[in-house]
Automatic annotation (TrEMBL):
Organism: Rhodopseudomonas palustris
Active site annotation, chain numbering: E76 (proton donor)
Protein name listed in UniProt: Riboflavin biosynthesis protein RibD
Residues reported in the UniProt entry to bind Zn(2+): H74, C99, C108
Binding site for NADP(+): A178, T220, D224, G323, A324, R325, V326, A327, R328, G329
Length: 389
């Protein structure tokens, strides 16, 4: 008899463990879907974080949402609207704590309560002092079960721009470097040369589309005359704001950037003593001139100050594309949060331009302060993503 009881207890325990594992696997699957949905809004939601949300009832998805263009409606509101009455008793998976304050729209937490949602699985807490745990507290006070922390690392990475803007008053900075096998980014005399293939270039254009702004130095503009837009089919409208560090406003009036300033925003960051006549001329062409303090004891603009200004203007995700001096400046100032290192299949030669303006690339690839997070092949090229340790 005793053995029968023990066998029954073991079977019940095994059954409960199996059910718990299945529930955990389902939670993970739905949260990962919410993260994927949230990424649809990257680079398009203004100062609002690109949140994803999924409503699930009886194992079936009844609503999905993501923060829409311009930041409204929020992901939770979109998911609730698609679910309708099916939201009652459902579980909501959301990549960031639902807001609890009145802004341009009512609090998402109130909408979740009113819809009768039974459980909320939230990836991370929002550090915004207007939220900061209050959204979760409001849900719990209404009797809703709240689980916090699932896929927290992935969510923090997706919301890095929002988190840094709140905590440090600067955007999340991604530095993109396309280098040859001998660590060069251009031929002699800064002449541009194709380093990577079509697959790698397509990935870079997707990264541009997921950024609020793209930044280069005036040297890159003078050497390459770039457009800095998104050239993927059907995605031209997702081109980011173009930012040029141009201390003395040397950008040519006939450059591609200035010519397109009325269709895609162009911000020129200049010294506070840059010529007023040049600023007026460029402003008349559609560019916006932003004055930034210079570095103390060294030529050039104060990069930290420039990031603060960009953050105040709503930029949360900044892609830095060059050139070598700008890249080195951001790395040495400790203002880089990710480095996308694209390595082509061919060398350029000893007379080419070093990727970091004389600073060895091993300062990233072999430095204890950096680690390779991801690596993949893109045709003949390799992409490695580094992040600070």
């Amino acid at each position: 008899m005793i053995f029968r009881i023990l066998e029954d207890q073991y079977a019940e325990r095994a059954k409960a463990e199996k059910a718990a594992k299945a529930a955990a696997a389902a939670d993970l699957r739905f949260m990962q879907l919410a993260l994927t949905l949230g990424r649809r809004g990257l680079g398009r939601t203004g100062t609002n974080p690109a949140v994803g949300a999924v409503l699930v009832k009886d194992g079936r998805i009844v609503g999905r949402g993501w923060t829409e263009v311009g930041g409204r409606p929020h992901a939770e509101i979109g998911a609730l609207a698609r679910a309708g009455e099916a939201a009652r008793g459902a579980t909501l998976y959301v990549t960031l704590e639902p807001c609890s304050h009145f802004g341009r729209s009512p609090p998402c937490a109130d909408a979740i309560i009113a819809a009768g949602v039974a459980r909320v699985v939230s990836a991370i807490e929002d550090p915004n002092p207007l939220v900061g745990g209050q959204g979760h507290a409001k849900l719990r006070a209404a009797g809703i079960s709240v689980d916090l922390g699932l896929c927290a690392e992935e969510a923090a990475r997706d919301h890095a721009g929002h988190l840094l803007r709140v905590r440090e008053r600067r955007p999340h900075v991604v530095l993109k470097l396309a280098v040859s096998t001998d660590d060069k980014i251009a031929a002699a005399g800064h002449q541009p040369v194709a380093i990577t293939g079509e697959a790698a270039r397509a990935r870079v254009h997707l990264l541009r589309a997921q950024s609020d702004a793209i930044l280069v130095g005036i040297g890159t503009v003078l050497a390459d005359d770039p457009e800095l837009n998104v050239r993927l089919p059907g995605m031209a409208s997702q081109s980011p704001i173009r930012v040029v560090l141009d201390r003395s406003l040397r950008i040519p009036g006939d450059s591609k950037l200035v010519h397109s300033a009325r269709t895609t925003p162009l911000w020129l960051m200049a010294s506070e003593v840059a010529e007023a006549a040049s600023a007026m001329r460029l402003g008349a062409a559609g560019a916006q001139v932003i004055h930034v303090a210079e570095r103390h004891g060294a030529p050039g603009l104060d990069l930290a100050a420039a990031l603060t200004v960009l953050s105040e203007k709503g930029v949360t995700r900044l892609l830095v594309e060059g050139g070598a001096r700008v890249a080195r400046g951001f790395v040495e100032a400790g203002l880089v949060d990710e480095i996308w290192l694209l390595r082509g299949a061919d060398p350029i030669g000893a007379d080419g331009v070093d990727a970091l303006d004389g600073l060895l690339l091993t300062a990233i690839t072999q430095a204890p302060g950096w680690r390779a997070r991801d690596s993949e092949r893109l045709g003949p090229d390799t992409l490695t993503i580094y992040e600070p340790v």
